[in-house]
Amino acid sequence: MAADKDARLDPLARLTGLLARLPGIGEKSALRLALAVVRSEGEYVEALSEAILAVRDELRLCELCNDLASATRCERCQDARRDRSTICVIAQPQDRMALERTGAYRGLYHVLHGVLDPLAGVGPSQLRLANLLPRLHGGDEPVREVIVATSPNVEGDATALYIAKLLAPLEIPVSRIASGVAVGGELEYADMTTLHRALEDRRRL
Amino acid sequence: MAADKDARLDPLARLTGLLARLPGIGEKSALRLALAVVRSEGEYVEALSEAILAVRDELRLCELCNDLASATRCERCQDARRDRSTICVIAQPQDRMALERTGAYRGLYHVLHGVLDPLAGVGPSQLRLANLLPRLHGGDEPVREVIVATSPNVEGDATALYIAKLLAPLEIPVSRIASGVAVGGELEYADMTTLHRALEDRRRL
Q1: Does residue A100 sit at the B interface (CB-CB below 8 Å)?
Q2: Of B2, B48, B68, the CB nearest to A18
Q3: Which residues of B29-55 are buried (b: 16+ CB within 10 A; e: fewer)?
Q4: Are the CB atoms for A90 and A149 separated by under 8 Å?
Q5: Does residue A161 come out as left (phi exceeding 0), alpha (psi in the -120 to 50 range) or beta?
Q6: How far apart, in whole angstroms, are the C-alpha atoms of residue B67 and residue B96?
Q7: What domains, with CATH codes, occur in chain B?
Q8: Of the candidates B156, B105, B162, which has an alpha carbon nearest to the alpha carbon of residue B132?
Q9: Facing A32 at nearest CB: one of B23, B53, B75
């Protein structure tokens, strides 16, 4: 009954409705989460409510790379030790976190906050691309390579191709992360498309 | 990087940590949700933060049946038109919502807020059972049947058996919802245990 009532009257329905607007959270999960909040200790509930406001108040997007930042520029864009001649284009801040964990990349990033997905209504204007071009002629140090590290699926590949075309007139090399059988994975269980790419992208030993 | 830092310093890590304490939300989902909050409009963020406090401030558990209530007693326990001679024992408020949608039940409920699960450390004292017994001798109208509608899995079945034993001295009939092949389901695809129960619980036509 509660979930069917007017959301303005019923706090549970209201919270459920708001949670269901988060990505990957359906109506049922939202209700489950809202009920977990109801059952939580008052201290936890207060902390959660405050933490939500804090991310809005204390986090912003870096003016250069669109990554999460606590100042006008993010930690990496401020870090003089990083290689400013390489920019790695990624879809989400999570992707930067994953790449940083490898320790294999010392360049800068550019976060698109999405990938091209015409079926979901995401076109180039929905991506944070506007501030990419100025970075490529603007800086003190010339950019020598742009690595597109969007996921190797239809949307990620389309986004990579779009960026390669966009940057073609600048004559800056644009590369794409390799696809293939995951390290530690079994060839036998790799899907056909992955195996196809693994063959195409083969490299000399 | 952000998620690895001290939670007190980093609002994103703090929100991620709090969200990961909700049931069914792992570290990765929590981070994804926290980033969605970062990207949301300020208005949404404020509404979410307030809605979380509101469920704590405006909802409580019904003193009779432990269901969600905006007053000392829930809507159903207050409703004079409901059949007070039947009590349906359920694990969660969601189960009451599902049963109410069928329109097939007009009795009262008793919400346990969990099921027996020794491996997860949930024993009888963690369930809201204490106020069930007083309902069975206390009321103006005698209770004629207790229906245990916990889910038909190991934990739900154990809980049902426990309640049946607990109520045995009172000589009130305790019943269990039927298990079997789902309506509209295919016999061919039903799992062995379900089919076994469907045979056992067969009824005369």
Answers
A1: yes
A2: B48
A3: bbbbbbbebbbbeeebbebbbbbbbbb
A4: yes
A5: alpha
A6: 8
A7: 2-58 (1.10.8.420), 82-199 (3.40.1360.10)
A8: B162
A9: B23
Residue type (1 letter), B49: S
What is the percent of chain B where pLDDT is above 70?
Answer: 94
Which residue carries 């934990």 as its tokens?
Answer: B155
pLDDT at B107: 94
Tens digit of each residue's pLDDT (9 = 90 or more) over A46-65? 999 999 999 988 998 999 99
> Looking at residue A1, what is its pLDDT?
40
Interface test with A, best of B43, B56, B106 (most A CBs within 10 A): B56
Q: Report the C-alpha gap between B98 and B91 in whole angstroms.
A: 12
Across the interface, do B48 and A100 touch by the CB < 8 Å criterion? no
Residues A149, A151, A154, A158, Cα dihedral to 10°: -20
3-state secondary structure of A80: coil
Helices and strands in chain A, H and E counts: 8, 6
ipTM value > 0.85: no
Distance (Å, whole) CA B35 – CA B22 = 16
Touching check for B199 and chain A: CB below 8 Å?
no
Return mean pLDDT, chain B.
88
Q: Looking at the complex, does the CB of residue A151 fall below 8 Å from at least one CB of chain B?
A: no
The whole-model pTM stands at 0.73
Query: Strand ranges (DSSP E) for A77-163?
Result: 83-90, 107-111, 145-148
CB contact under 8 A, A44 and B18: yes
Specify the pLDDT at position B16: 95
Q: Which pLDDT score is estimated for B7?
A: 46
> What contacts 24+ positions apart, CB below 8 Å, involve A176-184?
A176/A147, A176/A148, A177/A147, A177/A148, A177/A149, A177/A152, A179/A152
Say which DSSP state A127 is in: S
